[in-house]
Structure formats: C-alpha cells, structure tokens
Design a protein that fits this description.
This protein is α+β, with helices and mostly antiparallel strands. It has one domain: Gcn5-related N-acetyltransferase (GNAT) (Aminopeptidase, 3-Layer(aba) Sandwich), CATH 3.40.630. Helices cover 19% and strands 41% of the residues. The strands form 2 sheets. It has a 6-stranded mixed beta sheet with strand order 1-2-3-4-5-8. Strands 7-6-9 form a 3-stranded mixed beta sheet, with no helix packed on it. Strand 3 and strand 4 form a beta hairpin. The longest helix has 15 residues. It is globular, with a radius of gyration of 16 Å. It starts with a strand and ends with a strand. GO terms for molecular function: acyltransferase activity, transferring groups other than amino-acyl groups. It comes from Maioricimonas rarisocia.
C-alpha cells in the first residue's frame, strides 16, 4: 500500500474533504451521532493527519498541540483524536504507522508526551502507550455545551512519553488538561 500522509491545518480542509472525513468517521464510529452532521466530537482539532490512497481518504487522526499542567509544572502534549482507518484498509499496520509518524513528529519538535483517550487500548499499547491511572482535570463538553470541570481518574487515558520528562503515575497526582478531553 503506497500511503500518502498529509498533516493539514483544519481551516485549510475543503468542504469536499470534510465530507470524506465525515463519511470515514461515520464508518468507523457508527454508534456516534455526531458523525451524521460534523467531523468532530467535542471541538475541531487544529490539525489532522490524513492518509490518502489513490486519491481516496483511507484514514485520519485529529492532532491537538497543547500545554498541560503537570504536578512539576507545564508540559507540552500532542493530543491524538479519533484515529480511524477505513475497514478495507485495516490489518496492514496503517494505524500503527500513523501513531509512529505522530510520535516521531513530537520527538522532532521537543514535545513531552502524546496523549489520547481510548476504551480499547490494545493498538496504543503496542505502540508504546500506557495507562497511568492519573487523576485528570478537564473542561466538560457535550453536544456543544460546556457544562463544568471534570476531575477524576479516567481509565481511558493513555500516554506515551517522548523524552526525558515523566508522566506522573497513580491517582495521587493530578494533570490539568487546561481544556477539553481529546
């Protein structure tokens, strides 16, 4: 498979490509109602990693660059959002290639961590992510409504350390996402 990876600013994506992204999200997340009308769950990702095969969008990953507050001070993260691969293209390592591409991007630019939230973490664990069990604080958003601040240990949180900085382990440490949960 000769994939072409494209990191693109969200505001540069055309209406036609947004429709392809929406179709892909709908295929990959059929139980999610947001996919019938938009290409994002809680907030537009600032960038997307798009993968093209012979002119067809076959995979996408939202990418957010953010500062978070760790117990020992600010840290930089790339948030991985809604990784999805078209059904016909699964099983050949494309999702892992996308994750490795993102991890290398972070390392190249001195980012401390890549973080994401996933119920099924098998793919991410195979690519160097762990579940730290850290308490997290975030802006709660549901269907375009910001309705408070969440503060809890989220089992879905997965982290990959990219450099010497260590993510805190366990519920006694709190990390403030300083924004919405990816």
């Amino acid at each position: 498979m000769s994939d072409r990876f494209e990191l693109i600013d969200e505001f540069r994506i055309t209406v036609a490509v947004h429709e392809q992204i929406r179709d892909l999200l709908e295929e990959c997340f059929p139980e999610s109602s947001f996919t019938s009308t938009r290409t994002w769950l809680k907030q537009l990702p600032p960038r997307r990693l798009l993968v093209w095969e012979e002119g067809e969008l076959v995979a996408q990953l939202g990418v957010e660059h953010r500062v978070v507050r760790l117990p020992d001070g600010p840290g930089t993260v790339l948030g991985a959002i809604d990784l999805c691969v078209r059904g016909a293209c699964r099983g050949v390592g494309l999702a892992s290639s996308m994750l490795q591409w993102l991890l290398e991007l972070g390392r190249t630019h001195g980012i401390d961590f890549v973080i994401l939230f996933a119920a099924d973490g098998r793919l991410y664990a195979r690519n160097g992510f762990c579940r730290p069990g850290t308490r997290v604080r975030w802006l709660k958003i549901h269907e375009l409504d910001g309705f408070g601040i969440g503060d809890d240990v989220l089992d879905e949180l997965m982290v990959c350390e990219l450099g010497p900085r260590r993510w805190p382990d366990g519920p006694e440490a709190t990390v403030d996402l300083l924004g919405y949960q990816f």
